[in-house]
Amino acid sequence: MEKAKAENKITYRCSKYRKYPECEFQMKVISDNYGEIMFSTSNTHNHDYRTTTTRAPLPVRDIVRNAAAADLSQCQTRRGIQNHYE
Asked: How many helices (H) and strands (E) does the chain have?
């Protein structure tokens, strides 16, 4: 009686593939009932092109970036944000 060779195949994609749709990096793991494990990788990371976001840029982020560049304190930054929205 011959036992059929059952395999488990698992494919892992780059964790950033949603942000970078052209990234085709994959790792494949194949394990069988005999304890043998095969591991392979395919392609390379390509993070040159990023998907555009549907979220509108927040002016608060710009205020915080500018405050950090100007080396303002947290209190001064908070006041700047409050003044912007009054």
From this structure: 2, 3
